[in-house]
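=== RUN LOG ===
request id: a7f3
mode: sequence -> structure
chains: 1
length: 248
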Amino acid sequence: MAKQKVIFRDLGQMDYEKAWHYQEELLRKILQKKAKSYLPEYLTSAPSSHKSENLETHYLLFVEHPPVYTLGKSGNKKHLLLNEKELEKRNIQFFHTNRGGDITFHGYGQLVGYPILDLEHFGTDIGRYLRNLEEVIILTLKDYGIEAKRSKGETGVWIDPDKPGKERKICAIGVRCSRWVTMHGFALNVNTDLHYFQHIIPCGIRDKKVTSMKEELGRDVSMEEVKDKVKQNFETVFDTDLKSEFFF
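=== RESULT ===
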């Protein structure tokens, strides 16, 4: 079976709300194509030989957001420890999103990845999809000599998850899936300012720390290098070919 083609776009630095709307736009396009593919030929204007052309469209977006807290649809707003005035004073945005998971932080120095994939071509199993996202990050951290693992019952990527008192999360993951098309994704702390996490209960998990690649390695890490490694590991884990396109 041929590898799925995935369009890669680096959005650079972009406000969370704008990136969210862009994801929704791409997701709608994929769903519209899927809907047309289910129609009998006499209800479409395209000949059958062209009906499936460019149907299998998937995307991987990279972005860095200005400081923002986002709360998942089943999250508890009490896990945000700042009120509106305090958020405004610190110039931090807040959004209640439609992804899974609880509260997390996005900011400069953090690599956020938004895969928009039709899982009908990757396996219709959300649990498997989440484990694959975790594996992409675990392999990337291994490239830097950082031993990262999964934590039983907790989505994301962790350091020392089996050592009480030393557990620290390095990558948060939260997704949404509509008719097997995904959006939202992962947030890997590369050179992230970890002080922002002091104002939330990250992912609703108390008494566990948050870390970054910079914190673990004791040095700044090249974001461009991390992006390249994540892309390579994404291609390996999901058995895809990434095609880079400029974002305008």
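=== NOTES ===
The CA atoms of residues 69 and 105 lie 5 Å apart.
Helices lie at 16-37, 48-51, 84-90, 126-142, 213-217, 223-238.
=== END ===
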